[in-house]
UniProtKB/TrEMBL annotation:
<dbReference type="InterPro" id="IPR051322">
    <property type="entry name" value="AA_ABC_Transporter_Permease"/>
</dbReference>
<keyword id="KW-0813">Transport</keyword>
<dbReference type="GO" id="GO:0048473">
    <property type="term" value="P:D-methionine transmembrane transport"/>
</dbReference>
<feature type="transmembrane region" description="Helical">
    <location>
        <begin position="190"/>
        <end position="210"/>
    </location>
</feature>
<keyword id="KW-1003">Cell membrane</keyword>
<feature type="transmembrane region" description="Helical">
    <location>
        <begin position="54"/>
        <end position="78"/>
    </location>
</feature>
<dbReference type="InterPro" id="IPR035906">
    <property type="entry name" value="MetI-like_sf"/>
</dbReference>
<feature type="transmembrane region" description="Helical">
    <location>
        <begin position="90"/>
        <end position="108"/>
    </location>
</feature>
<keyword id="KW-0812">Transmembrane</keyword>
<dbReference type="InterPro" id="IPR000515">
    <property type="entry name" value="MetI-like"/>
</dbReference>
<dbReference type="GO" id="GO:0005886">
    <property type="term" value="C:plasma membrane"/>
</dbReference>
<comment type="similarity">
    <text>Belongs to the binding-protein-dependent transport system permease family.</text>
</comment>
<protein>
    <submittedName>
        <fullName>Methionine ABC transporter permease</fullName>
    </submittedName>
</protein>
<keyword id="KW-0472">Membrane</keyword>
<dbReference type="Pfam" id="PF00528">
    <property type="entry name" value="BPD_transp_1"/>
</dbReference>
<feature type="domain" description="ABC transmembrane type-1">
    <location>
        <begin position="16"/>
        <end position="210"/>
    </location>
</feature>
<keyword id="KW-1133">Transmembrane helix</keyword>
């Protein structure tokens, strides 16, 4: 028990910091680029704007192809990309890059769905007033889709927390790396239990905050 406590004191703060770094960086990149791709999919698939079956089909196929693969396979494919960009994929930065690329198509479909839920009557009325596509995006679509986007962001962040544990398991740092090194390899059940409890509490807190924000935006 004393050894477990010592391990947690010495390694848990850095592991949590590495995990937070990977999740925040990949989350910001994934949400930003995923939103842009999702908006593009919505525009090219909606008759009111710029329908283009070819572009929509190609982009949709790529998004679906990446999303259909298990994350570990995506991770293995992205390791050379992270190595090319950072020089060492087995670092928190390398892990963040892999997570970000995996998060982009995931959030793209969430964003497309959120935009598709906006009342078409509002969109048609906005077009009738002569509003440009960008004015409709910022003035109508985003405010209306914001609650769904917030819920999607929460879902993405929670998924990234789980994925970050997998990234850590291959040596990129974070709580996954700590769980493997000290919990699994050293047969320290206490470390594994502590990490599982921390993950459960963290996910619950994030979900609670996200639900409250989405509820406020809905009202």
């Amino acid at each position: 028990m004393n050894e477990t406590w010592t391990i947690l004191q010495e390694n848990l703060p850095q592991a949590l910091a590495d995990t937070a770094y990977m999740v925040v960086v990949s989350g910001v990149v994934g949400v930003a680029l995923g939103s842009a791709i999702g908006f593009g999919l919505f525009l090219t698939g909606n008759r009111l704007f710029h329908p283009n079956r070819v572009v929509n089909g190609i982009v949709g196929f790529v998004v679906n192809a990446i999303r259909s693969l298990p994350f570990l396979i995506v991770l293995v494919v992205l390791i050379p990309v992270a190595q090319w960009l950072t020089g060492d994929p087995y670092t928190p930065t390398g892990g963040a890059i892999s997570l970000a690329i995996a998060a982009i198509p995931f959030f793209a479909r969430i964003a497309e769905g959120a935009f598709s839920e906006v009342d078409h009557g509002l969109l048609e009325a906005s077009q009738a007033t002569g509003a440009s596509t960008w004015h409709i995006l910022w003035g109508v679509m985003l405010p209306q889709a914001l609650p769904s986007l917030v819920r999607g962001i929460v879902l993405t962040v929670i998924s990234l927390i789980g994925f970050s544990a997998m990234v850590g398991a291959i040596g990129a740092g974070g709580i996954g790396d700590m769980a493997i090194q000290y919990g699994y390899n050293r047969y320290d059940t206490g470390v594994l239990v502590a990490i599982v409890v921390i993950l459960v509490v963290l996910v619950q807190v994030i979900q609670w905050i996200g639900d409250r924000i989405a509820a406020r935006l809905t009202h």
